[in-house]
Amino acid sequence: MTRRGRLVLAGVLVLVALAWLPLNKPVEGPKLLVLSETHAIVAADLLSVLLVVIAIVLVLKR
Predict the structure, then answer these.
(1) What is the rounded distance in angstroms from the CA atom of residue 27 to the CA atom of residue 57?
(2) What is the pLDDT of residue 25?
(3) What distances in angstroms separate CA 28 from CA 2, 43, 55, one per listed residue?
(4) Angle at 40 between CA 36 and CA 33, to 5 degrees
(5) What is the extent of the structural domain holding 13?
(6) What is the Cα–Cα distance from 7 to 13, expressed in whole angstroms?
(7) Nearest residue to 18 via CA among 45, 37, 54, 58
(8) Number of folded domains that form the chain
(9) Cβ-count burial 24-40 (b if 16+ within 10 Å, e if not)
(10) What is the DSSP letter of 33?
(11) How high is the pLDDT of residue 28?
(12) Which residue, among 49, 58, 55, has the nearest Cα to 21 in the 3D structure?
């Protein structure tokens, strides 16, 4: 895969990760870290974290 292709794929992964955050309400799962009374990091949020990590790896890969 070319560098440009990896950058495009990384961008798409980040966009999907951001889109997933408001859409994951029905499948949130348990709260992993409570940030405030109305905000928490839940199990479904980990998918977004994973997608961003994969995007970072794609960008940094030589």
Answers:
(1) 27
(2) 86
(3) 36, 6, 22
(4) 100
(5) 3-60
(6) 10
(7) 45
(8) 1
(9) beeeeeeeeeeeeeeee
(10) E
(11) 87
(12) 49
CA distance linking residue 12 with residue 31, whole number of Å: 27
Q: CB atoms < 10 A from the CB of 45, how many? A: 19
pLDDT tens, 1-60?
Answer: 899 999 999 999 999 999 999 998 888 889 999 999 988 999 999 999 999 999 999 999
Report the distance separating Cα 15 and Cα 11, nearest Å. Answer: 6
Element (H, E) at 34: strand 31-34
Bigger pLDDT: 53 vs 61: 53
